[in-house]
């Protein structure tokens, strides 16, 4: 497909350190048997991006190009999807992802104060990573563990019944 | 195990039901909240003790889904089916496991918390007096191991599919669901039978049936509980629906925030394929059906069916104008039915027990049950399933055991960000789709957030608006721009710069957005504002005329001062993150209002109640 972005077809090359991960991704894409329904290839885009983000931690330009080529769609199509869904990010994020649940149950039980305390202690706002690349602070909508509200997730671990006072302890757990 | 006829299925059920089993079963709830509360450690200890006591043949451990007793997680149930005895332990920790095993079925064990059961399983038990809850949707959740196909089959699983495929015509299935009066449990309340009929009437060789498991309403977790606790019930119902409308492919669209539910669904699909319960020629009927899973990626609007379909097609999840309805032109342009998880979870029970049975539960206009996720300031947070027509008072004050910490009930929010709040004056209203709509709220997916006197309703409205603002896809102007303007007005009100005119404008804009937005998300986004305004107008007025937040929540309207009760312990000044508090030791301290960020730390740490909030 002709590219209209004036890049003259010079798409970003894959950096060598990612080659291995791109190979794993390619294997995954091949396992999806895209050619079974050639006009429905795009239906696999979101699951491919999920897999890619779990491999690389984020979705850099090189990857967006690569996936676009594989699915025979434009990079704008891929980027449009990435920017629409809050789960995807095209920027590298911290090693530990802190997500404060701001669902309704957590909200009425004081999630705002917990979030404020994380902001203050880490000195970053939601959607940002600490300068040392250690923590990413985000908010999420409901993990469905409302009985433990307010809830904070760090990577895959859920912390229930959070208070502003417990924030320091949680951060400490991830000190090297 | 290959199941290719109803007789095979009956044999599989018989085999599981008559298999020699230990007299005692221990059920441990391994849903997401159970695991987060520490069930995994309890389970580990349980396995360890069973092994060291050589009880492997005397006790069977079942890892089950959510039992609905979320407030008491980790939960463990000891069950002696033959003698009809059971004990439910709540807030179990590993150190209690030993005592619980010592006491066994003759318990309860000393030093533990036992829980009275107040629900029943309608297919094999009759309700005792005073039991308010029913179990249709959650019939297997928290009772069988969700990773065991055998246990599902033993409790009647897949017999509804066998019945539909081998004894009923497609049209008969649709007629049955129509007669049962089942309505969409995702919130809309559209009659499921009619939806199926529309799709069945389309002459197209390719159709789709989609399960909407994109449970995005914050505070709603019933779909997660069903998928984690009883995944096969959804697969079975999708196959029945596929047969009814003539679809051979099902798609489950599930949100990425539910990894455990995904894992259990994948396992269930694999098991069903291996047995031939999914795939070609199911039960020898000549009907082919298969299911695939598609993932969401964190977009609330994808719960809207046209947006959901776009998302499955790998596009931005933006809704489109209906008609054409998905039943005519849906996924990949083919006729498509989209039903919610909870709706599907009712189907097999209806096929097994008939439409009259289903209609005997609930109200005439809304038959059956509804699952509610009871959360917020209620004493017993949990998953409850009640017949339609029950009053909020029964749900909140009897099942939920009232408000936490003896505070006063203020309102309950149903329908999530699209719903409204219901106040004390409507607590005795029997709830169904119509009654909730008539009081400015809606059924929604079933989240029920209870609020007490410490919650500021203007702030709650602002919270929900912030949510829709975040989740608006931006396609239509009323939602994209209108909600932003509404949010700014609420921001003004909660920071004390609003006027009566702001309130008036807010009201007008709410109605405009309601009338002009493209999809359900935008059309319902002003609901929280309108309903809090209707019920708590005095709070709005207090914010703008007196610069006062009656609940003491809106930070910009709060002032912290220190009274003469201060003994000068300096606890507050040491805790203050911005050094706004000064004073000599053993002297009264003062707060500098210009420096104060109103974080409330001083208020919380003071042991002498000297810090006052007003």
General description of the model:
Chain A is of the alpha+beta class and 176 residues long. Chain A has two domains: 16-84; 96-173, Glutaredoxin (3-Layer(aba) Sandwich). Chain A has seven helices and five strands; from the N terminus they run ααααβααββββα. Chain A has a five-stranded mixed sheet, covered by helices on one side. In chain A, helix 1 (19-31) runs antiparallel to helix 2 and helix 3 packs across helix 4 (75-84). The longest helix of chain A is centred in the first third of the chain and has 13 residues, at 19-31. Chain B is an alpha/beta fold and 614 residues long. Chain B folds into five domains: 21-114, Glutaredoxin; 149-357, Rossmann fold, CATH 3.40.50.11540; 370-444, Ubiquitin-like (UB roll); 457-545, NADH-ubiquinone oxidoreductase 51kDa subunit, iron-sulphur binding domain (de novo design (two linked rop proteins), Up-down Bundle); 559-613, Alpha-Beta Plaits, CATH 3.30.70.20. Chain B is built from 24 helices and 19 strands. In chain B, strands 2-1-3-4-5 form a five-stranded mixed sheet, covered by helices on one side. Chain B has a five-stranded mixed sheet with strand order 8-9-7-6-10. In chain B, a hairpin with a 7-residue loop joins strand 17 (581-582) and strand 18. The chains are: A alpha+beta (176), B alpha/beta (614).
Beta-strand content bin of chain A: 5-15%
Major sheet description of chain A: 5 strands, mixed
CATH class of the largest domain in chain A: Alpha Beta
Number of helices of chain B: 24
CATH topology category name of the largest domain in chain B: Rossmann fold
Give the overall pLDDT of chain B as a whole number.
92
Beta content of chain B: 15-25%
């Amino acid at each position: 497909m002709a590219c209209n972005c004036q890049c003259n077809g010079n798409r970003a090359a894959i950096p060598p350190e990612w080659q291995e991960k791109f190979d794993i991704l390619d294997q995954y894409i091949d396992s999806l048997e895209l050619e079974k329904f050639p006009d429905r290839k795009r239906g696999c885009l979101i699951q491919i991006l999920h897999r890619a983000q779990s491999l690389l931690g984020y979705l850099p330009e090189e990857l967006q190009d690569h996936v676009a080529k594989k699915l025979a769609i434009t990079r704008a199509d891929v980027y449009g999807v990435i920017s629409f869904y809050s789960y995807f990010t095209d920027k590298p994020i911290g090693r530990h992802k802190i997500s404060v649940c701001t669902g309704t149950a957590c909200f009425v039980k004081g999630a705002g104060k917990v979030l404020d305390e994380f902001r203050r202690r880490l000195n970053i706002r939601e959607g940002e990573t600490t300068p040392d690349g250690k923590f990413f602070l985000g908010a999420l909508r409901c993990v469905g563990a409302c009985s433990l509200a307010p809830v904070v997730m760090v990577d895959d671990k859920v912390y229930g019944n959070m208070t502003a006072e417990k924030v320091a302890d949680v951060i400490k757990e991830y000190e090297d | 195990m290959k199941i290719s006829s109803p007789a095979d299925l009956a044999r599989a059920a018989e085999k599981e039901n008559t298999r020699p089993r230990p007299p005692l079963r221990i059920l441990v709830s391994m849903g997401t909240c159970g695991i987060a509360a520490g069930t995994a450690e309890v389970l580990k200890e349980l396995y360890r003790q069973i092994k060291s006591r050589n009880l492997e043949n005397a006790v069977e451990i079942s890892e089950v889904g959510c039992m609905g007793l979320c407030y008491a997680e980790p939960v463990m149930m000891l069950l002696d089916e033959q003698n009809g005895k059971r004990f439910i332990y709540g807030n179990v920790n590993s150190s209690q496991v030993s005592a619980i095993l010592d006491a066994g079925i003759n318990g309860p064990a000393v030093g533990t918390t036992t829980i009275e059961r107040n629900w029943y399983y309608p297919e094999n038990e009759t309700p005792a007096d005073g039991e308010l809850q029913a179990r249709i949707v959650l019939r297997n959740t928290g009772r069988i191991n969700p990773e065991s196909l055998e246990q599902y089959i033993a409790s009647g699983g897949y017999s509804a599919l066998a019945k539909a495929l081998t004894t009923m015509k497609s049209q008969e299935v649709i007629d049955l669901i129509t007669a049962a009066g089942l309505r969409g449990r995702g919130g809309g309340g559209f009659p499921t039978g009619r939806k199926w009929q529309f799709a069945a009437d389309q002459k197209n060789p390719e159709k789709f049936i989609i399960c909407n498991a994109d449970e995005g309403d914050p505070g709603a977790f019933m779909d997660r509980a069903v998928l984690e606790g009883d995944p096969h019930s959804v697969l079975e119902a999708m196959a029945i629906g596929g047969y009814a409308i003539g679809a051979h492919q099902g798609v489950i669209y599930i949100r990425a925030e539910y990894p455990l539910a995904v894992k259990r669904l994948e396992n269930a699909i694999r098991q069903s394929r291996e047995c031939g319960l999914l795939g070609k020629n199911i039960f020898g009927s000549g009907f082919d059906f298969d299911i695939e899973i598609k993932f969401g990626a964190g977009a609330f609007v994808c719960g809207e069916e046209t947006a959901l379909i776009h998302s499955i097609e790998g596009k931005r999840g933006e809704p489109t104008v209906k008609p054409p309805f998905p039943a005519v032109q849906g996924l990949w342009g083919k006729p498509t039915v989209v039903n919610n998880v909870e709706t599907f979870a009712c189907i097999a029970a209806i096929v097994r027990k008939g439409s009259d049975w289903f209609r005997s539960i609930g109200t005439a206009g809304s038959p059956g049950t509804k699952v509610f996720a009871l959360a917020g300031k209620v004493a017993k947070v949990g998953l409850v399933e009640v017949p339609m027509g029950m009053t909020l008072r029964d749900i909140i004050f009897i099942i939920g055991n009232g408000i936490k910490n003896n505070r006063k009930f203020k309102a309950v929010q149903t329908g999530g960000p699209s719903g409204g709040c219901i106040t004390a004056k409507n607590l005795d209203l029997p709830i169904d789709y119509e009654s909730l709509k008539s009081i400015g709220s809606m059924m929604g997916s079933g989240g029920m957030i209870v609020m007490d006197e410490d919650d500021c309703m203007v702030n709650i409205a602002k919270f929900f608006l912030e949510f829709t603002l975040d989740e608006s896809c931006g396609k239509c102007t009323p939602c994209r721009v209108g909600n932003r303007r509404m949010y700014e007005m609420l921001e003004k009100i909660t920071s004390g710069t609003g006027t009566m005119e702001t309130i008036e404008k807010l009201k007008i804009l709410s109605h405009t957005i309601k009338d002009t937005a493209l999809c359900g998300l935008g059309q319902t986004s002003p609901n929280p504002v309108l309903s809090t305004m209707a019920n708590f107008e005095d709070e709005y007025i207090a914010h703008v005329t007196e610069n006062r937040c009656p609940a003491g929540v809106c930070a910009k309207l709060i002032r912290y001062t220190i009274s003469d009760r201060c003994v000068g312990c300096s606890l507050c000044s040491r805790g203050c993150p911005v050094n706004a508090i000064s004073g000599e030791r053993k002297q009264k301290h003062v707060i500098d209002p210009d420096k104060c960020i109103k974080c409330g730390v001083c208020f919380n740490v003071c042991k002498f109640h000297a810090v006052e909030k007003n």
